[in-house]
Amino acid sequence: MKGLVGKFLGIQCALCAFCVYFVNAWIRSKWCESMKQECFFSYEGIKYDPGQLVFSASLPGVRCNVCGFSWTGLRVLPIHCPTIIKKEIEAVRVTYSCCPIEKFSHYKRRWERILSASGINVELQAGDSLLPVTWTRPEKPTDPIAWPLGGPVVCKVVSDCLVKLDLSCTHLFPLPIQLDPDSVFLNSGEYSLVIVEANTWNSWYKQRGYTQCVACGRFSLPDDESKRANIECSVQRSRCVLSKDDIPDGADIFLSHIYRSGLVVSERVHNEIFPAIEGFVKVRKIVIV
Ligand SMILES: [Zn+2]
Fold this sequence. Notes:
This protein is α/β, with parallel strands linked by helices. Helices cover 35% and strands 28% of the residues. The longest helix is centred in the N-terminal third of the chain and has 21 residues, at 17-37.
């Protein structure tokens, strides 16, 4: 058999041992190189904000007689809600805060078709919130980063840095601020909502043999696995450890199963935004195993 080295030297090389050695060495060096680039930081302790993010529309919860659960999710989708869907959601919510599964499935399919006709293909879930969004709070914010229910918000300095980085899977939307009770709208360019699409949940659940309800789409783990998963999760959190298999491909910012309200950011994002938010987040380097 004539391998690469053999071809180059014009000789036969038995079983291509040299080729195997050199190819392996090259793969090892590339692997080490890529591992060096995989440097992430956890941003924890982002201050909970007492204000409220008020979305244009939020899907109702679902009451499922197949899996027996009533539930609602907390996803925020980077989608502007068409007027027709907004009106229908409002009408449905007058009757149901938690929709029976038959009704929910009917509306879900209908709204997905309407969005698809506009070129937006998405699988909606119970509780999904759609844009635009307003931030209602008692006074003008001053912190560069905060976390009201619905996701992290950042000041203009930070959002400008993120825009400059041209990140995939991360979306920024201007956030008009409404001061209550005066209902004064402040300049909408001062703060932005950050919608982070990438997360470690999907991969983490998949590896633990989750099941998904065929009717409502709810993910669940068997009870014994769920207990093990909770313990593993708290160990990972205390040691700030993530498996490289759980890290989403190509994402510079992602949510992780080890934090309820925290972000994981790549080194290039960290270098860019940390000077603006120093003192407002607790930073740890992620150990990747
Ligand atoms: Zn179900």
